[in-house]
């Protein structure tokens, strides 16, 4: 893959491969038809996940040693030719192994074959299978094979290696069209016409219920159903989708339309300026944001002309050529341009082509881009739809949430937002849309972002000492271990290449290889000394010959042991390839090349790798060596890595997050963050970030938190404080001791000036004794204090005492930390606070 998969994408791809392999094997053994469904919310990168699966089906996975599924054949089915084109282009751009033509094919008029090609994805839109279509009939002068026969023949000959992919599968049960008929005929075949059913169906959807209904509604045969689910929380944490959709609800009616157009243009130009500033600092190409205008269902030529004029008046430099539309037809002409009185025209652009059209800055749409569309440049939406069209708004928002650079921007959180103007929605409708996104409903209409109705951008607070900022930026935090961790061997080689690319250590790749190969040689030499290596090599590169004689007269049978016959070179190579697949990142081939350079024989060296693979502890030992060296390089070069631009730092951060354990890292403190004012929010001074207008930070504090904050703000030595978020790279994350994939995110960090002039740092976490995970949280903070206590004046776990007053345990104190770690049950926590706790305020 060209793209590095996010953690949850790697997990989903691995689980999908396992499910598809099981489906193939069960169909082969029992003939029972199968279905597998990938369930993921909008923005999860379903196509990228599918690309990784297809790539590994066709070519295997060298990192894990998973072999290819020989003869795998994929038919990709949708009801939208534009969606097929978009998917093909995504696959081509994401994969390093799949190529258009031989492996990514569009079924068109030139296609006429008895079976679909193996090791290829054939894209088909169902319109080609409707009655009366040229493709439906075979045995004619124009076509030898109908597509129906081609699909049926493939089902029979390829069996469980034939995968029929139903993309946007939630749309497979739509009423009022013949799509369900076409889909069910692809899935179930037509016994009366001797057409075979698809052995394995692979659905891709955000709503599994509809896919399951489609499987049940299809004619027999029945199917074994399996599902792979992507959690919306993982998508939100990935940085692939915008964090926040800001829903503006200005009122004013038609008279205010022009003013709102000006405001929407102002918003998109503000995004453009911020992206340009970010790109200049990070030496990247700046994304060109797009303004999407959703017009009314019945829009006139004068409406379009007036809108275009308003847009150009508000946006200096915007030309008519920069305004495009995606309407299915205009004035009876399919995909036609819209003429303007000036003689120019608003040009039509296919939805899938908008993202790559660098001239397009404003997109006029109705409904064509509400499903399947993907345009990360779309960052502002102005909708002239009414409240009755809430579903369309939700669908459209779900298509606009992808981040332009496929990652969260840590330097400026406002670049992780989308601005939406809904002048014809009442307040309740806007709140309903926001609530749907907040709940993360699994729906094709709802993405993984959060929608809010107000947002404030807060900058670094000038009232907070620069010394406090310096200390804050150096506080230790921890990554979340990956769901599917990458091999430490692969991580080491990747880290080494990053260090060389960034001119931090040009010798790092050579040194990394030396560390890995030395570890492998060490295991082999240890086995050589004991004689185990010779025995293992002989056992794996020879065949023991035996013969059996049968005396016809006496009826006796005798087994005669023969000598050992060496495997021929091809046999050794097969065994070597099988063993080498178990070693990540082609490191076995590196070992082979190194030994060959020193004059060792190829057959003998291959035998060493085969023998080494038989040692159950060998790979783990080399992995451990690699993991230790990754940590060593990370510590050695942390300062230089931190000095890189954020675009480069992001690659190192992702590498850290692919580890099997929680890795120490640093807080990412951006220049700006976003805050959400509300009726329940309060505003306080001296936060690290503050509103530019009043110097205050809006946030919500419950009863305990309010008490703690009032006490700390009353301390004249307080320099500043930080409200720790519950996720993201700017969050101080303290992993649980036994389950490091879970963590506590302490509520507050406070910075004080001591009597000696030095800055002291304190972590304060209100820590209810009644919580189910109270013991895990207490252990996590105590363990963190044992590792990093010298950096802090206090690491306070806070709870209510029996008299209702707040008590604290300062876990920097050795006795408090030891006592906290000895707690085994939640019922013991209250007693601990009563015995050792001191009054907080």
Largest sheet: 9 strands, mixed
Q: From the alpha-carbon coordinates, what is the Rg to the nearest angstrom? A: 31 Å
Number of contiguous helices: 24
Shape: globular
Number of distinct beta strands: 35
Structural class: alpha/beta
Low-pLDDT windows of residues: 172-180
The end-to-end distance, rounded to whole angstroms, is: 56 Å
Average pLDDT works out at 88
Strand order of the largest sheet: 13-14-10-15-9-16-17-8-18
Please report which band the strand proportion falls in: under 5%, 5-15%, 15-25%, 25-35%, 35-45% or over 45%: 15-25%
Verbal overview:
- The longest helix has 26 residues.
- Helix 13 packs antiparallel against helix 14.
- The chain contains 24 helices and 35 strands.
- It is an alpha/beta fold.
- The two termini are 56 Å apart.
- A 9-stranded mixed beta sheet has the order 13-14-10-15-9-16-17-8-18.
- 39% of the residues lie in helices and 19% in strands.
Structural features:
globular; seven-stranded parallel beta sheet; alpha/beta; single chain; 841 residues
Task: Give the helices and strands, then pairings.
Elements (H helix, E strand, L loop, with lengths): L6 H24 L2 E7 L6 H14 L13 E6 L2 H14 L9 E3 L14 E5 L21 H12 L3 E5 L12 H10 L11 E6 L2 H10 L5 E7 L2 H7 L5 E5 L8 H26 L7 E5 L6 H14 L8 E3 L3 E2 L2 E2 L3 E2 L5 E4 L13 E4 L12 E6 L6 H10 L17 E5 L5 H13 L10 E3 L3 E5 L5 H7 L3 E3 L9 H14 L6 H23 L1 H10 E9 L6 E10 L2 H12 L6 H11 L4 H13 L3 H25 L3 H11 L7 E3 L5 E4 L6 E3 L4 E3 L5 E3 L3 H11 L4 E6 L10 E2 L7 E2 L3 E6 L5 E8 L7 H15 L5 E7 L5 E5 L3 H9 L4 H10 L1 E2 L2
Parallel strand pairs: 1-6, 1-7, 2-4, 2-5, 3-4, 5-6, 8-17, 8-18, 9-15, 9-16, 10-14, 10-15, 16-17, 32-33
Antiparallel strand pairs: 11-12, 13-14, 19-24, 19-26, 20-23, 21-22, 25-27, 28-31, 29-30, 31-32, 33-34, 34-35
